[in-house]
Amino acid sequence: xxxxxITVAELIRLIxxxxxxxxxxxxxxxxxxxxxxxxYSDLIEDYAAELKTVTTASTDVPIELTYLFEDIRxxxxxxxxxxxxxxxxxxxxxxxxxxxxxxxxxxxxxxxKNGDTVRIISRRLPTMKIVDDISDDFLCLPDRFIKIxxxxxxxxxxxxxxxxxxSSNWMNxxxxxxxxxxxxxxxxxxAYGG
Length: 194
Fold this sequence. Notes:
A hairpin with a 2-residue loop joins strand 4 (99-103) and strand 5. The chain folds into two domains: 8-45 and 126-188, no CATH class; 47-123. The chain contains five helices and six strands; from the N terminus they run ααβαβββββαα. It is of the alpha+beta class. The radius of gyration is 21 Å and the shape is elongated.
């Protein structure tokens, strides 16, 4: 995950210096969260691996998740001391061998056994920022792309002020900056094995 050297509070201060507005830091924080969640959901590939040990299948499965089931990208299961087998996503209507599925927001899989080790690869998303922590929270893009935040927030402010043409101009700049970021990202993105 990228981490800027610029805090959320610093960005808000820069925005307030550059565009006249009377909107609270809370609404600006919501726009920052909206932007980061969208970029990390749709463009930036950032994954985390988590190992879960199933001591007793009847009580440990389905597996509680600290993220959304939809963020899972890969599930591998090792029965006992065997090798990891990749499982495929499936629906609850039919559960074939070597499959995993959403069980009321938890991870369930075919044929759980005592002693299984489950490796879950999931998409990581930035932690949602809150107003109380803006002095300590850093933005989740490289510093060179700080304009993405500015242009997006400028556009949102002008939209609320009903200055639609000016808002559209800032949104065009934002889209151009996103395209620059996309090109840079695909040249520099980390490679993940497996």
